[in-house]
Design brief:
It contains 15 helices and no strands. By secondary structure, it is mainly alpha-helical. The protein has a single domain, classed as MFS general substrate transporter like domains (Growth Hormone, Chain: A), CATH 1.20.1250. It is globular and about 50 Å long. The two termini are about 40 Å apart.
Length: about 400
């Protein structure tokens, strides 16, 4: 057994260790969410005749549960984090399974909301469990491995969609159903792991975490430009079909499955400040290029480069792990998801209206957001810790 495995198997062994459970969760989530995401733009255009304003509204509805992620703290008064995470995965799978059956504006808003409740609660809880279960000195590297596992799972989904053996309805049912089955397996097969540190079950904001809050807020704003408008541009402007979009996603995750773990190790070496600074400089260049690109292949290249920077975003979480009181992790994970989604609720619908006038303006505003993030990243100390949170 490797030293890394030995250190993380402190509450279980082999396939029943906490890390193994995190890995299965990481496989299950993309089976549902990547199916939903890969088909979404084509599905809403072909079946529901959505325009830019419609997709903006749908994405804003999708982000409402993320904005309410702070409520996880209250549910944890009655339900253990591990069980709650598994239940959230099941809810995600359920919402995705129903998506293809309700191809109307109202139906899509309802199924998207159900899917999103499961997705955002799960992501909040998985982040909390990851920061609690992984050792600080190896967290970026191990998070990179998990990111690679998730990308490999997404690759399977996108390869299946490129193959296109079924229509929208069956594909949504398969992706969501497999996620639900894995959730049931985890519920039945894994014991409840004890908490290393009892978690606070109340809401709070700590002044010394202000830089982490600011980075999370800007990350939520930047992510919407990619999630909502970069993909929609491929379909609306460059007329990508389902296979084209799935191929693009497959390439993204194929690259991530290979480089995510090395990037995690690299963050361990160079530190969070350097990693995030490089990410945001790259994003400024990508967003400015999005604004003026007129070639479909060049746009695809930009999209792939844009996605690569998501691997570096684990540096925000490892920065927080280093500065946080261990008892604060669960509550702060919920609060940070809410902060992350303040911009996410507003940007899709407001920028969707702006898109109708000028798509270039949307991406130029994204570049401005990346610049603000760069300024914030430079405030991270070389060796962050409790008491040394801001440079």
């Amino acid at each position: 057994m490797s030293n890394t495995t030995a250190q993380i198997n402190t509450q279980g062994t082999g396939w029943r260790s906490p890390y193994a459970l995190l890995a299965i969760m990481t496989v299950a989530m993309p089976l549902a969410f990547s199916t939903w995401y890969a088909l979404l733009n084509n599905f809403v255009v072909e079946r529901a005749q959505f325009n830019g304003a419609d997709i903006g509204l749908l994405q804003s509805v999708r982000e409402i549960p993320g904005f309410l992620a702070f409520t996880v703290v209250f549910i944890l008064l009655f339900l253990r984090e591990q069980r709650f995470a598994i239940l959230s995965l099941f809810t995600l799978g359920l919402g995705v399974s129903l998506t293809g059956l309700l191809p109307s504006s109202v139906g899509l808003l309802c199924t998207t909301f159900i899917m999103s409740v499961g997705f955002h609660y799960f992501e909040t809880l998985k982040k909390s469990l990851t920061l609690q279960w992984l050792p600080k000195d190896q967290a970026p590297a191990l998070m990179g491995k998990l990111l690679g596992i998730g990308s490999a799972s997404s690759m399977v989904v996108y390869a299946f969609i490129i193959w296109q053996p079924f229509g929208y309805e069956t594909t949504y049912m398969l992706g969501g159903g497999l996620c639900m089955l894995l959730a049931l397996f985890m519920f039945l097969a894994y014991p409840l792991f004890p908490e290393k540190e009892p978690q606070h079950k109340k809401l709070f904001l700590r002044k010394r975490y202000w830089l982490y809050y600011a980075l999370v807020f800007m990350s939520g704003a930047r992510r919407q430009i990619f999630m909502v408008f970069a993909g929609f541009m491929m379909v609306e402007k460059f007329h990508y079909d389902v296979s084209d979009i799935a191929t693009l996603y497959l390439i993204n995750h194929a690259i991530n499955s290979v480089i995510a773990a090395p990037i995690g190790r690299w963050i361990n070496r160079v530190g969070e400040r350097t990693a995030l600074s490089l990410e945001y400089i790259g994003l400024i260049l990508v967003f400015v290029s999005y604004a003026f690109v007129n070639d479909a292949k060049l746009a695809a290249g930009l999209y792939i480069i844009d996605h690569l920077f998501f691997s570096m975003a684990i540096a925000i979480n490892s920065y927080f792990q280093k500065i946080a009181d261990p008892k604060d992790i669960a509550a702060t994970s919920g609060v940070s998801f809410t902060i992350n989604h303040i911009a996410a609720v507003v940007i899709p619908v407001s920028f969707g209206l702006l898109w109708m006038t000028s798509s270039a303006a949307v991406f130029l505003l994204g570049a401005a957001m990346a610049l603000v993030s760069l300024i914030l990243a430079r405030k991270i100390p070389c060796d962050p810790s409790a008491g040394n949170e801001v440079r």
